[in-house]
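Lecture 7, part 2: worked example. A protein chain together with tryptophanyl-5'AMP.
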Amino acid sequence: METNTEARKIILSGIQPSGKLTLGSYLGAIKNWAELASDYDCYFMMADMHAITVRQDPATLRATVLEQIAQYIACGLDPDSCALFIQSQVPAHAELAWVLSCYTMFGELSRMTQFKDKSAKNEENINAGLFTYPALMAADILLYQADLVPVGDDQKQHVEICRDIAQRFNGVYGDTFKIPAPFIPKVGARIMSLQDPTAKMSKSDTAAGGCIYLLDKADDILRAFKRAVTDSYTAVRYAPAVKPGVSNLMQIYSSVTGKTFTEIEDEFESKGYGDFKLAVGEAVIETLRPIREKTEELLNNKDYLAEIYRAGAQKAGYAANKTLRKVYKRVGFVQ
Ligand code: TYM
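Predicted complex, written out as structure tokens:
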């Protein structure tokens, strides 16, 4: 049993409550949080401040945040040992983000893939928050002196800029922030749309059946997998460049069953795509069923969820303020 909590390494990660949680965010992020959690001190947040960089309907945002906390717990995060909190309830995030934005360069922000993608999709609302988003994300991570940031492949660039900002700040003021490392899973780091395997599966996926949500019903999941885009060959082989659809399904199947790509190829050696898609769909249904049931149960107990996020904000706030005070002192703010 772990007795010295001071010596434990720290994890921080978060998800924007800008839509329903997807199979991509589960396999790329939350599943790994739950697997790593017992070895670390953990902070997992609902990144609601990030979400408003794109227009949100207020009532939907509130409901999504609550649903997301319930899903974090349903996915196996223990609220007694992890701080599960809402970003906007810990003011230190906004405060440190301002300081860090003064140590973040225009040029490096301009190179961020997510900024380029999102501004192309939201031409009518290319706001400053969308641009400075990585400074807020750096604050999220650095406030907790996180060692590890478990994320999917698409967030790697943001963890890298966070490291650059931390190193720059430490270079000026001396050791202030721990330099965090990204944790990107070997399998499941980039789950693609079932309808367009060249595009990432995302909350805003508009193609019917392209995206699986954690709370989807079994019938809908099975239908989506049966209709998943593959190719005109027949062999179940892992070859992302030539067989992106089949390779994506193999990633999903491997991630939910723990089977290697070779084991999967052997399993479907003499079978067709139809059998393979059915097997993937059924494996996903079995993985998501307990998550959906537990989430529905938790959403009936809003008082319990409120207790969790209040306690989470208190624990997170305590750790975050320690770092913030240190930063304010270093930059010369009067104490
Ligand atoms: P977000 O909300 O877009 O996604 C949440 C997490 O899910 C991963 N993910 C995927 N992984 C594999 N395949 C996919 N198709 C897929 N879609 C999403 C993402 O990589 C991410 O890990 N900026 C972050 C949220 C954030 C954050 C942070 C993360 C805010 N502050 C601090 C870590 C640390 C974001 O937009 O993730």
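The pocket of tryptophanyl-5'AMP is lined by residues 12-16, 24-25, 27-29, 47, 50, 137, 140-141, 149, 151-152, 154-155, 158, 189-191, 200-202 (CB under 6 Å). The first helix runs from residue 23 to 36. Keep this in mind for problem set question 3.
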